[in-house]
Amino acid sequence: DAKTTQPPSMDCAEGRAANLPCNHSTISGNEYVYWYRQIHSQGPQYIIHGLKNNETNEMASLIITEDRKSSTLILPHATLRDTAVYYCIVRAQGGSEKLVFGKGTKLTVNP
Amino acid sequence: KAGVTQTPRYLIKTRGQQVTLSCSPISGHRSVSWYQQTPGQGLQFLFEYFSETQRNKGNFPGRFSGRQFSNSRSEMNVSTLELGDSALYLCASRSALAGLYNEQFFGPGTRLTVL
User: Fold this and answer.
1) Which residue, A21, A90, B41, B115, has most beta carbons within 10 Å?
2) Does the distance separating the beta carbons of A44 and B109 come in below 8 Å?
3) Which of A38-52, B78-92, B94-108 has the least mean pLDDT?
4) With a CB-CB cutoff of 8 Å, which residues 4-33 of chain A face chain B?
5) Residue A81 CA to chain centroid, in angstroms?
6) Rounded distance between C-alpha atoms, residue B68 and residue B57, angstroms
7) Are the Cβ atoms of A99 and B109 closer than 8 angstroms?
8) CA separation for the pair B9, B15 (Å, rounded)
9) Are A64 and A50 in contact (CB under 8 A)?
10) Considering only residues 32 to 51 of chain B, which have any Cβ-Cβ distance to chain A shorter than 8 Å?
11) Nearest to B48 among A32, A45, A98 (CB)
12) B41 Cβ partners below 8 Å, 6+ apart?
């Protein structure tokens, strides 16, 4: 079973920041938080991952709470092309490459 | 670099038949994983291959099998198809470099419909 809890759906206005929350209260010390997204009818796409520090790349920022029990993926300026299902996954680096996907959050970016 | 390619993209079979799906990973990637996606169960891990060896297997019946060739291309086979096998089958490849997180790159999937 997935070790994460995400809201089933969220809406965001185009151009505004989209903040997607994820709860992972049972995360272990060696487990990372990964985010993937799946645009309709395509394969999932890697976005970002982190252990305990905040991370930023060209796609998004990842904010992880100090106790590591939750995190937030931030898309700073959402566009219509960001409409997708976003998956938060916890996984130990160096372990199995198996990704355990939950149901994710369906983000709809509205014009 | 070309992405992960999967063939065929769409397939229709009838119950009891078998099917073989193909995946060509990104050049240089040695690990290939397979996932099944259905509306009811979501994305579920099937198996992972690395250097022609199965390294991990999900909770699927033995009707689901796979293999990897020396050029890292992979095939998965489903025998004695059931209606519930209708799904999007996704292949993902990664470079498997030691010491780094190697993100998985997913292909577009093969949409299998079992009638």
Assistant:
1) A90
2) no
3) B94-108
4) 32
5) 16
6) 14
7) no
8) 19
9) yes
10) 33, 35, 42-45, 48
11) A98
12) none
Confidence band, pLDDT 50/70/90 cuts, at residue A1: low
What's the pLDDT score for residue A98?
A: 81
The answer to whether the bond into B61 is cis (omega within 30° of 0) is no
Residue B98 confidence (pLDDT): 56
Q: Which of B4, B44, B94 is closest, CB to CB, to A97? A: B94
Inter-residue contact A25 to A33 (CB < 8 Å): no
Nearest to A88 by CA among A14, A9, A25, A24: A24
User: What average pLDDT does this structure show over B76-103?
Assistant: 87
Min distance B112 CA to chain A CA atoms (Å): 13
Tokens 């997180």, residue located: B101
Q: What angle do CA B45, B46, B52 make, to 5 degrees?
A: 120
User: CB distance A44–B43 less than 8 Å?
Assistant: yes
CB A28 within 8 A of CB A93: no
